[in-house]
Amino acid sequence: MNSLDDRDHWVGLLSPDDRGDHGPHTGWCWVYKGYDPAEEPLREALCTLGNGRFATRGALPEAAPHAEHHYPGTYAAGLYNRLTSYVAGRDVENEDMVNLPDWLPLRFRPLSDDADDTTGEESGDWPWMSPDTCEVSDYRQTLDLRAGTLLREMLLRDRRGRALRVYQTRFVHMGDPQYAALRTEFRAEGWSGTLEVESAIEGDVTNSGVARYRALDGRHLTDHRTGHTDDGLLWLTCRTRHSDVHVAVAARTAVIAPEGTGPEYRARERDVAQTVRLDLADGVPVAVEKTVTLHTTHDPAISDPLDACLHGLRTAPELDDLLVDHHAAWERLWQRAELHVPGLAGCILRLHLFHVLQTLSPHTASLDVGVPARGLHGEAYRGHVFWDEVFVLPYLNLHFPEVSRGLLMYRHRRLGRAVESAAEAGHRGAMYPWQSGSDGREETQTLHLNPRSGRWLPDHSRLQHHVGSAIVYNVWRYGRTTGDQSFLHGPGAEMALQVARFWGDFAEWDADRSAYRLRGVVGPDEYHEAYPDADRPGIDDNAYTNVTAAWALSFALELYHELPEPRRGELAEKLALSPGELEGWKDISHRLYVPWHRGVIDQFEGYGRLAELDWEGYREKYGDIARLDRLLEAEGDSVNNYQASKQADVLMLGYLFPPDQLAALFERLGHRLDPDTWRRTVDHYLARTSGGSTLSSLVHAWVTARTHRAQAWRFSREALVSDVADLQGGTTPEGIHLGAMAGTLDLVQRGLTGLEATGQVLHLDPAPLPFLSHFDLSVTFRGHWGVRLSLEGGRLRVTVPDSAQRSLPLQINGHRVHITPGETHTLQLPQPHEDV
Ligand code: BGC
């Protein structure tokens, strides 16, 4: 049993005084010791390897197909398929990121060809060796973050007592993203004989990794073809049933001395395999190297995926050389992104960075893909793209701006579809979908299953129109950080103006209140989908939605006016923008209604009048109440009746905007948001939020770092361990939480440094927390690569690397300094006020 997988263990380890390394998880290595089948799903997700183009879960190559506890999954970024299933008496359509043929299988067993075999069984009946079928010892699984490899080591003993030591290395190539590879070394201990090794490509795969989706059709692949070439390459092709994407996987399996006999090939309808027999001598290692290529008709510069796969293998370097290139590619990424924080927190942050970069790497920049909420690590949320990029792009902007731009272009290519969706709903402008997949239509399910009650329920989360403002926010932040005018004035302006037009049209004038209102929406807190006993879905005037819409309107206007005249004229003509419409936006941006209740911002109109929940009672009754919505529904009640939120909603405003900007935004809307009022608002919602999303603790950590420092550690810790300890109880095995992972990196990078980019100036407003008061990171800003920020002992050092660039203007605590490339500026920070 691996105690490091235990959640209490994690929480205990991460103490505020943590400064050292911890057990096996140190520095660059993430290590699991011992084998526990029940822990496999979590390890598979956390040991996924990928390169931004495709990723493969850390499943066991030797496990039997479809075995319990194992879920091999390979997913290509942006590769979706749509299927219709019949559930709860109706047809429902879902688009899923497709689980592709499994390239991992590599099975092995000793043959019973020795004289002392007295069992009389046929060799063919011997079970394949695996930790599930053998006695297992010395089991160790290491994710080497620096090298981007997953290493396994184990000693297996079969029922005849034959001991086999296995060392395995795998990688998904970060340099040339068509490749993946698996190197396995076998060593017989105390015997000599024949080892049969089968290397296969398994095409009989479905999407069945998420238990609550299993009533839905998961068979996305069809028209399988398999075979092998004269030069010994295995191949498998198939296509997706609806989106008709053709997929090919090919493998070359080589035996490194001593040679054995074989290979023999077996091609079946949906899988293909080759078998070799190796003569093992006691204690002498034999290695089998499997090199794999994967191509689809989605790839850029592709003709036929199978040709591309075979060509890739025939021109592939030896596995060792592939590995060298792979390491070098990772080294380049670490140089652009590394973040040093001491202790276990630093180790977890590095793991988060690793998974962010495996999902969204520089290869992603040239693909037509968005930010999948659960990475390429599992099937939860079907690989869909939500608003989570608002937690991811701010981090990427400062390291890989080309990736941010690529992700924003995913949205721009779907602008037309968002305009159509708005028109279908009777509105003008762009209504971006809450869940987006291949073509930008709304992919949010219409029904969802409450696993607690077993009931299929209507799902109204598609009313989260605030996603449009988040996209504009990402355009703004990207533009402001990178100064990329061609994007800002090109696709960026088009998206901002179309989203502004949507809000301009969606807003209703309420003469009684002398204000504009946004009615019938759902806010980031997904719990509240309707008023108690209402006959229509949606709530009115979600404060977050209204304030961010006002901001999006004002930014769109600002951007419009700053456009070079010819471009402004072009857009005015293309979008038929009239001065009257622009005036209307300005008016709305000043007069959108913000609800208040007893001196704090009200989450939405009427929220403060809902019943209070008996939080203690529910905690006592159920322990974990993160999914309060499901608990209450199963009791025949509804979370709509209570002042209880799933996740940060109003407080998201404090995540998006620094305090002075937020106060200015409220002032524009006619409200005074002074620090006391904000603090009271923070208290109010911290007490009424169940934390049903990993994004919640992240936002709470961010906000409390500046308002309630004593509480900030609890939230930071929760955000840090949410995936490694699977805090949401079983959700991480279904895919990592990419927003929370990237968000924790950004918590250090921007949250604690107060880093804001305006024009050419880098602003810093540090608020280090006692337990995160020592860090070292570098950012790329306006042509300055690798600007280093180091905080230690209350001193902040900013180093601008040598270059031909002009000096970097830095504004910190009210002072402006210009740092010449090649120089360092050191600043003693004032003692922070303790919990004011
Ligand atoms: C959260 C959303 C988030 C989604 C995908 C949901 O549980 O409520 O805010 O976008 O997960 O991560």
From TrEMBL:
Keywords: Glycosidase, Glycosyltransferase, Hydrolase, Transferase. Gene3D superfamilies: 1.50.10.10, Glycoside hydrolase, family 65, N-terminal domain. Residues 32-297 form the Glycoside hydrolase family 65 N-terminal domain. The keyword Hydrolase applies. Transmembrane segments: none annotated. GO terms for molecular function: hydrolase activity. InterPro entries: 6-hairpin_glycosidase_sf (IPR008928), 6hp_glycosidase-like_sf (IPR012341), Gal_mutarotase_sf_dom (IPR011013), GH65_N (IPR037018), Glyco_hydro_65_C (IPR005194), Glyco_hydro_65_M (IPR005195), Glyco_hydro_65_N (IPR005196), Malt_Pase/Glycosyl_Hdrlase (IPR017045). Residues 350-745 form the Glycoside hydrolase family 65 central catalytic domain. Residues 755-818 form the Glycoside hydrolase family 65 C-terminal domain. SUPFAM superfamilies: Galactose mutarotase-like, Six-hairpin glycosidases. Belongs to the glycosyl hydrolase 65 family. This is Glycoside hydrolase family 65 protein.
